[in-house]
Amino acid sequence: MNAPNLRLGDLQLRILEILWDRTEASVADVHAVLKPERELAYTTVATMLRKMEARELVGHREEGRTFLYRALVQADAVTRSAGEHFVGRLFEGSLADAVSHLLTTREVSRTELDQIEKLIREAKRRAK
Amino acid sequence: MNAPNLRLGDLQLRILEILWDRTEASVADVHAVLKPERELAYTTVATMLRKMEARELVGHREEGRTFLYRALVQADAVTRSAGEHFVGRLFEGSLADAVSHLLTTREVSRTELDQIEKLIREAKRRAK
DNA sequence: GCCACACTACTACCGCAGTAGTATTACCAC
DNA sequence: GTGGTAATACTACTGCGGTAGTAGTGTGGC
């Protein structure tokens, strides 16, 4: 399975998120969604999509004159790859270290702590 | 506080790790440590260090003709920044989502689960 | 005194994200 | 059918990580 290189820039990730949301989107669609958050030229979005297609991150079909793009990589694969890099590269693979660091350097709400606790219990149940 | 841009490449991170380990290091030192893992030209390391100095990631003092570099950014700041980016960018800031994802897409040992559980309990105690 | 060596400085190049302008083309309205 | 519009195609440029060669220079050994 040729996992296309999954090191993504911010814009690329943002575009993928948009495509994950709506399955298919034209350049105009993506541009419109991006509009409020960043002021990008229409052609910038088009160029980015074409570059991403070259890297097999997205694909397209034609509807009349319009290209409808869709994501070729799953959100899952991207987040997994990012997680691996994060834990592996910065904490030598120790998930506990990574979580520890996240817990101590961020504000974490009681609710989140409860949620995570539950996740751990579930993981244990699955493992055992 | 001007946090210098903390988006680091792999080599840069590796170099910082080396500097964190030994406080000060010459180009030759860094090159020697890197040697077994990646075959880099001496000048590559020197160039990288100079570039990193331009970005204020490292600084140097001169000992005779030799530059002794030291890290200007703390390991802490780098991992925090990376953590923020990871959680913020990929999980909309939800630490629980991030941890959940890490737990389900990786092999996690019993021991690690126990460790994390303990961390959660501690965090709760601190919070309350 | 001279040579080799160890350093740093400078320059260059690739790949890729990001950004955008210009050119081309097809279609729709009237 | 002609003009405007909306679409893609092509090209270009910046910045940066990564990589490395070459040039310049000071120092120590003999």
Structural commentary:
2 copies of one chain form a homodimer. By secondary structure, chain A is mainly α. Chain A folds into 2 domains: 1-90, Arc Repressor Mutant, subunit A (Orthogonal Bundle), CATH 1.10.10.10; 94-128. In chain A, 62% of the residues lie in helices and 9% in strands. Chain A contains 6 helices and 2 strands; from the N terminus they run αααββααα. Chain A has helices at residues 10-22, 27-34, 42-54, 75-90, 95-105, 110-127; strands at 58-63, 66-71. In chain A, strands 1-2 form a two-stranded antiparallel ribbon. In chain A, a hairpin with a 2-residue loop joins strand 1 and strand 2. In chain A, helix 2 packs across helix 3 (42-54). The longest helix of chain A has 18 residues, at 110-127. Chain A is elongated and about 55 Å long. The two termini of chain A are 31 Å apart. The mean pLDDT of chain A is 93. Chain A binds chain B through residues 10, 13, 76, 78-80, 82-84, 86-87, 89-91, 94-96, 98-106, 108, 110, 112-113, 115-117, 119-120, 123-124, 127-128, and chain B through 10, 13, 76, 78-80, 82-84, 86-87, 89-91, 94-96, 98-106, 108, 110, 112-113, 115-117, 119-120, 123-124, 127-128. Chain A binds a DNA duplex (30 and 30 nucleotides) through helix 1 and helix 3.
Q: What is the topology?
A:
The structure is a homodimer of 128-residue chains.
Chain A: H1 10-22, H2 27-34, H3 42-54, E1 58-63, E2 66-71, H4 75-90, H5 95-105, H6 110-127
Antiparallel strand pairs in A: 1-2
Helix pairs in contact in A: 2-3
The structure holds a DNA duplex (30 and 30 nucleotides).
